[in-house]
Structures are given as C-alpha cells and as structure tokens.
Amino acid sequence: MKIVILSQNPSLYSTKRLIEAGKKKKHDMLVVDHSKCDLTIEKKKPGITYRGEELSGINGVIPRIGASITFYGTAVVRQFEMMKVFTAVESQALVRSRDKLRSLQILSRAGLGLPKTVFSNYSRDVASIIEKAGGAPVVIKLLEGTQGLGVVLADNHNSAESILEAFNGLKARVIVQEFIKEAKGADIRAFVVDGVVVGAMKRQGKEGEFRSNLHRGGSANIIELSDEEENAAIKAARVMGLGVAGVDLLQSERGPLILEVNSSPGLEGIEAATGKDIAGLIIKYVERNAEH
Questions:
Q1: At what angle do helices 100-109 and 227-239 cross, to 10 degrees?
Q2: pTM of this prediction?
Q3: Strands of 2-6's sheet, edge to edge?
C-alpha cells in the first residue's frame, strides 16, 4: 500500500518509527509536509499537489500535525477524506481535540471523570472563579498551550488571583482546574489505537515539578492500568472520535480523571517505557481500514 505520513519533520522519532514500521510491512511510505501542500477544490474532483506533483494512488494517511498548524493541517486531512482516502485521525476529531474547552465539554457529557474546571470570558471576579474550582491550590492552563507550556500551579489564593489577572490583562484565554494533590505530580498516558489500550505509562514530574510532561524533564515507567482506568481511556478516545489517541489521566481518590486527549501523541516515550512496537500497531490499524 502507499501510505502518507503528514509531518513537517521527517527526522522526528515518531515519524521515523512509522516509516520504519510501514517499510517492514513492504508499504510504500511517503512523508508529506502538509504546510507545503496545495489543495484544488472543484466539483467532484478534489486534488492535492505536493512539491509540484499531484498526489495519487494513496491508500492511507497518518496525520502528525503540530498544534501551531492545526488549521491548515486539518484542511489537508479533510481533502484526503474527500478523495476517499482512509485517515488514521479524522479531520473533525483533530479539530475537536485541539480545542481544550470543547474536549472537556464532550468528555463531561459522556460521563467521564474530570478535574473540576472553570472557564470564563476574562471575568474580573477572579476570586469567585478560583472558589468555583474548589479554591487554591488550583492549576491554571492556557487554552493554547502544549507539552506542559502555559500550565501554572497557583499554591495560594493570592497568587492564583494575580496569575489570573495577568492572563486576563494579556487577553489570554485560560481554564482554572482543581489541583489533585493525591496524584503527587504524576499522570498516566494511555495510548489507544482502534479502541484498544496498546500501552500505558506513568509519568512523574521531576522533583518539585507538578507537570509530568517528558519534555519538561519528567520520567516514565510502564504501568498496568486498572479496569476503570482502561475503560475511561477507551471511552475518552471513542467519544472524541479518535482512532489513535494519547489519553492523559490522573489517579484520584474518586477514580481516574481525564486531563486531555491528544490526537498526535508522541511515540518515543511510550515505546521506550513499554518496549512495544506501537508504530507497527498504528500501521496495522491503517491496513485494516484502507482500500487497496
């Protein structure tokens, strides 16, 4: 089969591993930088041109689209969908997953556990926002942040107020979430492919750091999920409409709480922690669904 990986950087670990896994199964693997694609839209004849050539005969697409280029990246994925090409992550699900607020609303409606979250339109009454989230300490997150950037833990009420006022002054949209003390700076990343948890790791923030992102110097170890955690991860990916997802959750006294659902989860951390060939499982998912 001819499989396209939409990625701006062919030397990234995840992209390299997907190419390797695809070639191992004798597929023709092509890395396409979505930011360099031109889309032709006409009646019943959608087309994509890449570096001056028409892309044709493609059986499947694996989008690896960075948050900064979501708008154009999803347009390219949508164009492939119009050309009846199977995509490992659907354009609509990609758009939804990049909107933190919308994601939380979808997860909440599905009855999944979440940290209590408050969002407002730059409300001046910051004190009541903090109280609604359960009072300090609270976690304040930029809606646009990724990889742990733009996430602040406010230990006490005064610092929470001044952080919120600063963000409001910058007209930066934030959500305020309750701080789950018992998680002790750790979270779980469950990797879901086609409705199955194919690997899970527990990520621990470095000393004195409550953000557990590996980009922030956290460490990761393989973990066996409880049935409740596994079911929550599978359901979260399903309601978000994602065939491939990294579901981040916290272990709390009231059960697993979903933090976010990532539509372009990195492979390096999870493959290193679990020793599993996750890239190969993503290729198999495409094989099962693509027309060839």
A1: 120
A2: 0.92
A3: 28-32, 2-6, 60-63, 86-87
